[in-house]
Amino acid sequence: MTTILRLIILIVLSSTTFMSAQDFQGVATYRTHRDFDIKMDSTKMNDAMQKRMMEMMKKQFQKTYLLTFDKNSSLYKQEAELDKPQVGGGIQMSFGSSGSDVFYKNIKHKTYADQKETMGKNFLIKDSISPIEWKLESDTKHIGEYLCFKATYSKQIPKMNLNFNSNSNIEDDNAEDKEPEMEERTITAWYTPQIPVSNGPAKYQGLPGLILEIHDGKLTVICSKIVINPEEKIEIEEPTKGKAVSQMEYDDIMEKKTKEMMERYAPSRGSKDGAIHISIGG
């Protein structure tokens, strides 16, 4: 580990000498995709419709983002794209962020502002950046022309299980009080000290170099292009639109809305329509 740290320090020093002489800025392009499992029991959906839905969901999780950054701050925003394909009947499924969402980080002041549209409402989530207890690993690899080092950390997350089952009783008061089942997940990052900014896509940050690749559960984020000091000067401004809330306040709002939606669309007690089990990991 001492050898790795020495190597990282040497790379950072050599890179910093070059970048400190300039008004250092950059633009990194990231592509994301997510693996998932979907199980449907006793539905009226035929095999052809299920296949179309699987293809549609796969494309929904394939997105392209731009991270514009300097030494102290960054903006992470989805690149504009055409509308996603629809399933029969005009039903369109959408997962993740809106194309108008913007995630701003100030790594110097350790704060972020997440401007997002959720369920037709605009929110501005402002809070402090939570430190990540990264473990620097000995593995290395090249991503494009950049030498990258591996880092990992573990966290506890609730198991995701969307269960719309006619046999389940969503009105059971004990169900609301029950603590969610947790599982441990290890997140893997690949970062390059050749770009000595402690930044990365979305909320990932805190390493001695720009993060170029992330594996978080079934979510994969990979950098496909980097432009250092583009010809046109980059303006990185903190977003200001939306109802200002903390991360905890936003999470509470989303939890309440999710419960309301599940109760609204779950089959009524005694229904003979069967059950639908949807599991999207990561």
Descriptive notes:
- The chain has helices at residues 2-19, 47-60, 173-177, 247-265, and strands spanning 25-34, 37-39, 63-70, 73-78, 102-106, 111-118, 121-128, 135-143, 146-158, 162-165, 182-192, 210-216, 219-228, 243-245, 275-279.
- It is α+β, with helices and mostly antiparallel strands and 282 residues long.
- The protein has one domain.
- The two termini are 30 Å apart.
- Residues 86-96, 162-173 and 274-281 have low confidence and may be disordered.
Task: Offer a few descriptive terms.
282 residues, alpha+beta, twelve-stranded mixed sheet, three-stranded antiparallel sheet, 4 helices, 15 strands, 20% helix, globular, disordered C terminus
The rounded distance between the terminal residues' Cα atoms is 30 Å
* Helix and strand sequence: HEEHEEEEEEEEHEEEEHE
| Major sheet: arrangement of strands | 8-9-11-12-13-1-3-4-5-6-7-14
Number of helices: 4
How many distinct domains?
Answer: 1
Q: Largest sheet, described in full?
A: 12 strands, mixed
Which stretches are low in confidence, meaning pLDDT under 50 for 5 or more residues running? 86-96, 162-173, 274-281
What proportion of the residues is helical, as a percent range? 10-25%
Mean pLDDT: 79
What is the total tally of β strands? 15
Oligomer classification? single chain
Radius of gyration: 22 Å
